[in-house]
Amino acid sequence: MSNFVNLIWNEQIKLYAQKSTWVMFIAILAIAIGGGLLTKFMGEEADFKEYGDNWRTELQEENAQLLADMEADEFLQFANPQIIAENNYHLENNLKPRPYDGWEYVLENSFLSSLISLFTIVVAAGIISNEFKWGTIKLLLIRPISRTKILFSKYVSVLIFALTLLLFLLVTSWIVGAILFGLNGLNPSIVQQQVAGFAQTGVIGEIVEGYGLSLVTLVMMATFAFMISAIFRSSGMAIGLAIFLMMAGNAIVAFLAQYEWSKYILFANTNLKQYMDGGMPLNENMTLTFSVVVLVVYFIVFLGAAWTAFTKRDIAGQ
Amino acid sequence: MSKPAMQLVKLKKTIGKKPIIKGLDFEIQAGEVFGFLGPNGAGKTTTIRMMVGLIDITEGDVLIEGKSIKTDFKNAIQHVGAIVENPEMYPFLSGWKNLQQYARMVDGVTEARMNEVVSLVGLGNAIHEKAGRYSLGMRQRLGIAQALLHRPSILILDEPTNGLDPSGIREIRKYIRNLAEKENVAVIVSSHLLSEIELMCDRIGIIKNGELVAIENVQSVETEESLQEVYIEVEPLAPAKTYLETQLANKIGVTAKELSMSVKREEIPAILKKLVEQGISIYGVRVLQATLEDKFFDLIGENTIE
Using CA atoms, how far apart are residues A34 and A24, in angstroms rounded to an integer? Predict the structure, then answer.
């Protein structure tokens, strides 16, 4: 076991000794700061409004104003009813609206997890094929360590890298958010629109759910890229295929939705959010258990193919 | 003889339907430097890759300290240090960090051992520079360092003098001899250059088209009872030639000042004595050794790749 830890340690050292890895962290930092500044100075003023003690009257006045605006400008008829509904939810449930804060900024940044998927794909695609490109695979595989162990140390390293990036995104978003917008307490509740209407939830729960669900796509696509890298020993191909599928995945599912078997497509199952908050799955026969089973099967197939390619084939020609 | 350090048992490799290695069968003893010689494409690297388990063995086996590389990989490979083809390193890591990578993969390699190996290969302060900036010679040294880290009993070096300057080649030759003689390591050195291998090896296996065509002891070639080309500088030239022709059945050649003839080594003193007795002055005698190179070309013939 200790040498498995050493192998992972080796992989992490190689990873962080490359400049491209640091570029990824810098990109995330830049986007977290840039996004924060953009929200702060270009965002909707209403979001930052501090309500006083007589917030009920303020909200009612706001609603009256919104209604009046709607009559004057047809264009506002799309946006305003939603704001009015949200205000009414606050009034009905006796919840004083709170200004936008750092927690909400963290929650909003969960969309950046697709950037993390992208970076993880790049790393997963390179972690095997680069050893072939550098020629170092020959020195790596003539140690008294089985190829299986080396393969899995690389896979685990990819997952550790993905989690590190995710944690980095969370922490930088939180710090930037806290500095720019302040924090409304330790776990403030927020009002969010869901399928069934508005609801109040704790923000940390929402953050865990948002980022957690994004991990499904992340892990599946990283595993896919890892497999392609092990089979074809080419990082370009692995990156290209994985990113293409990640981008086109939903379109492929939509295109094939008319067929019953489309529910077995990986991308029909990666979005587990479809089963939450009263959502509708793509296909009425699909359940959360079904999707989890499909995901696990894909996962095993990907890793099995990578393992077969890596442990059985000759290392020749470099 | 004691148990061989490495033993190739009817080793074969077939890729597709094409036989690449057609049954190699030889042994390498501890403390011996074994040269693996053959033209490019003869199958040297394929054989080395099978020895270290990088490619599958189609038939036969490689036994390292008695352990099969096929069925007991970990216990077999732990005795081996190797460079396979070019010594490629992580270009973005320093030489030292490259070594650390390999040190972490086996038990018992201490920092003291790493320092020892670094000074042995003479990398000195360059060890803390990025390997990407190394010259081929420096990479070769780092390659040897990683191969020696875990004190292997068998060292496999594929074209180890590639890219080294003459003084570097001499040094490597010295380490290799030293390792074999002082630490009883079995060293396998592959090369397509005979002149190099000849100087450092005890035995040479010559491979051609996937077959071992000969195993030669390096010393034996020189002492063999074969004919040698002898040049004798004499004065006067013409009478000496005529005289020798009456004495020897051999054909006598004449150059500007010398007579040349092919004779056995043991005949030389007698010939000289006869010339002296005839009052012919001898200014010099040269013997052209029948070199390993001639032998090599005799065995290899034309370098055809099937």
Answer: 15
B176-208 pLDDT per residue, tens: 888 898 888 999 999 887 877 888 888 989 888
Identify the DSSP state of B264.
E
How far does the CA of residue A135 sit from the closest CA of chain B (Å)?
6
Q: If you write DSSP's letter for every residue of B227-260 in order, what string do you get? A: EEEEEEEEESHHHHHHHHHHH-SS--EE-SSEEE
Asked if A82 and A63 touch (Cβ cutoff 8 Å), the reply is no
A314 touches chain B (CB under 8 A): yes
**DSSP annotation of A145:** S
Look up residue B219 and give its two tokens.
């010393």
As given in the structure block, the two tokens for residue A207 are 């953050």
Contact status of A141 with chain B (Cβ, < 8 Å): yes
For residue A318, with 0-12 CB atoms within 10 Å meaning exposed, 13-18 middle and 19 or more buried, which class applies? middle
Residue B49 near chain A (CB below 8 Å): yes
Instruction: Look at residue A21 and tell me whether its pLDDT is greater than 90.
Output: yes
A195 by Cβ neighbours in 10 Å (0-12 / 13-18 / 19+) ranks as exposed
* pLDDT at residue A296, rounded to an integer: 96
User: Count of CB contacts below 8 A, A vs B?
Assistant: 80
By C-alpha distance, the chain B residue nearest A133 is: B88
Integer Cα distance of A153 and A159 in angstroms: 10
Closest CA to B197 of B276, B295, B108, B124: B295
Give the best residue of A5, A9, A131, A142 to mutate against chain B (max B CB count within 10 A). A142
Q: How far is B29 from chain A (nearest CA, A)?
A: 21
Interface of B with A in 139-158 (CB under 8 A): 146
DSSP B161-204: TTT--HHHHHHHHHHHHHHHHHH--EEEEEES-HHHHHHH-SEE
Q: Cβ neighbours of residue A118 under 8 Å, at least 6 residues apart?
A: A243, A246
Q: In whole angstroms, what is the distance from residue B202 CA to residue A212 CA?
A: 64
For residue B6, the 8-state DSSP code is E
- Cβ atoms A149, A10 nearer than 8 A: no
What pLDDT score was predicted for residue B188? Answer: 94
The tokens describing A30, both together, are 């830049």
Name the amino acid, one letter, at B166: P
- Label the pairing between strands B59-64 and B67-68: antiparallel
d(CA B154, CA B156): 7
pLDDT at B288 over 90: no
